[in-house]
Description:
Chain A is mainly beta.
Amino acid sequence: EVQLLESGGGLVQPGGSLRLSCAASGFAFGIYGMTWVRQAPGKGLEWVSAIGGNGVATYYADSVKGRLTISRDNSKNTLYLQMNGLRADDTAVYYCARLPPALPLHANYFDPWGQGTLVTVSS
Amino acid sequence: QSLLTQPPSVSGAPGQRVIISCTGSSSNVGAGSDVHWYQQLPGAAPKLLLYGTNSDRPSGVPGRFSGSRSGTSASLAITGLQAEDEADYYCQSYDNSLSAWLFGGGTKLTVL
């Protein structure tokens, strides 16, 4: 069974840092692109970042460029999101999700999703 | 403000048919980017509902859910509404100008 399990969320002060992890199991992790999507409390979904299967290609939403960094360790079947310079508007549940293999960018969708981890940025 | 526009809410009685629209632009849906749909039940993570050019359904998704597209818009149709369909629904596509994936603002479906 394909499973994605996020961890690392919590309460952090504005300007602080946090690293989220997404442990994957049940599939050949290294051949799939992965993505992070967030959802602020009571709001809709916002795509944050994505990474190719080999970790070379990375993509970011303008709202997080320069502050959040996506990476992966295929030997550990784990996806990461390093979050620096956190702001109040980064408060959200962060989901990791898998991309289908070998599709062009315009065709990609996200399936499955993890259960999410909550990041709260507040003093 | 999302670049994919969805109605904030729709409603229907059990057994009825509802349609949720997703309006984009020439840099995403109109440029040929696929439109995918997700269902988010209360308190749960989103789940893929329809995907791909032909609006295919993942295993386990009932045939009551179907998708279509025309020009810069796409639609999700739900027939034979059931109480368990009450959820938030999101469309998703890729924008060539932004080089980014996009979600619609979401539509809350209420089953009356």
